[in-house]
Amino acid sequence: MTIIAKRALCAIAVICAACSASAPVAFAPDELLKVAVIPRNGEARRFSLSPDDARYAQLQKWLRDNQSGWVPYPATEPGFGVFISGADLRLQFLESTVLACHMKGACLQKATRDTDYSFLLK
Question: CA-to-CA distance for 82 and 63, rounded, in angstroms?
Fold first, then answer.
């Protein structure tokens, strides 16, 4: 392999490593959150999550445990899923993906499982 090819591979590796980084994905600890469960077909269900709700604590723990591995989401967000909205952040759980969209910035995505957010559906 030539020196140019080695340098190109190193540059690509650095760029790819920068694509998946820690992201400050968090709600304020005392923030009232709005939740909307919007299925592909059917009627939406909406409710609020207050800091004294056990599901709120589960969500905050999930966020603390999942600060890394987020990558840019370059597409328009789908209109279905489980939406959790705060003042500066909106999460959208979509089966095997979660989107984190900052109100004044871009969206990030991360792989997830439905068991990561099933507590919100109860």
Answer: 15
The share of the chain scoring above pLDDT 70, in percent, equals 81
d(C-alpha 122, C-alpha 9), whole Å: 48
pLDDT band at 30 (very low <50, low <70, confident <90, very high): very high
**pLDDT value, residue 1:** 55
pLDDT per residue over 62-102, tens digit each? 999 999 999 999 888 889 999 999 999 999 999 899 999 99
Which parts of the chain fold into alpha helices (H)?
3-19, 54-65
Residue that the structure tokens 């095997």 belong to: 96
In the chain, % helix, strand, coil (3-state, to 5) comes to 30, 30, 40
> Strand 107-111's sheet: what is its strand order?
45-49, 33-38, 81-85, 89-94, 97-102, 107-111, 71-72
Q: How far apart are CA 89 and CA 72, in angstroms?
A: 15
**Could you give the CA distance from residue 46 to residue 34 in angstroms, rounded to a whole number?**
7
How far CA 48 is from CA of 53, 78, 89, 113, in Å, comes to 10, 21, 15, 23
